[in-house]
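Trying the structure run again after the queue cleared.
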Amino acid sequence: MDAQPLYDLAPIARLMLLGVVIALGPLAWVWLRNRHAPPAHRLRVLTLVTLFLTFDLVLFGAFTRLTDSGLGCPDWPGCYGAASPIGAHADISAAQQAMPTGPVTFSKAWVEMIHRYLATAVGVLILVLASVSWVERRRLSVHWAWPLVTLVWVCLQGAFGALTVTMKLFPAIVTLHLLGGLVLLALLRAQAVAYQMGELGSQGRQPVSAGLRLALVAGFALVWLQIALGGWVSTNYAVLACSDFPTCQGSWWPSMNFQEGFTLWRELGENHRGEAIGFPALTAIHYVHRLMAYAVLAVLLALAWRLWRHLALARTARLLLAVALWQFVTGLSNVVLDWPLLAAVSHTGGAAALVIVFTGAIASTRRSPQGRAAPSSSLSLSGSTP
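Done. Tokens:
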């Protein structure tokens, strides 16, 4: 049998059409419920719907990775040159018969293709957002370039999705694909807040002290670093390198190989020499993420306490506290319960929620001109909704 080409664009028109069909549902719902609203409000609602579906897409991407379905269809954008596993029945049957527990099975192929269908639908929604923003640019307070940047980013994210398959789950590419999905969430959340602030006017953004503003930005940067470390753990399948807590392998400082573990450009399961990656390297990957988690949790708790002191930011504080505790519980569950699928997907969801909460908090606040926060009781909660 001839080798399957990595790229086969034959089904791309049908995949795009399917993405349009899926996107028509959310588009129709937004239009029918907001047809008499001003353009900025309709765009804000559509942005929030797209944000919700993108969050679901990130979760389903984690499910795809964690069920080893990332190579369920070994080519891109279709499945053995077909638009669905139905059209690839013969090829999938042959691959599954040759290797029943291998990367290509009917269930894995469907998981992979559903992920691609959802991604295409999200791309269509973002294309609509960019197009409508351009048409209505003279009537909007939000610059039309923001939706355009989001459109460019989702195209780049699609390219990384293709590389994830064609480069056979190359750890650095898979990690960047995860981070790219979270950046997309941040862009959409920032746009939604911008539309909201445009409706509220100049008093929409909550003034905070320079110190609190800096703390939010620094905390967000630390969260991004921790997410990257967590993605590196997941894409290298290093979660079970430490199966006890709070120690690792019965030690507070187990045997670790940092150089091998954090060599970024290498094949899955191999070190930079092309040999099988050693267990000390996987231990280093896991334990660095765990140690950083302690620091991130302390920062999140401190930030939640500071935000709680501002009445208009109390909801953000509660959300930040809830997600921080969620991450601790799901992360611990991954270790002590032998990496259950539900806990693993939920942990990715918590990371995505942190990105949304932080982006909303930063986008809906501003540094007080006097360098001090205005009295919190003078502003409504609407401007601080994360």
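The longest helix spans residues 106-135. Worth checking whether this holds up in the mutant runs.
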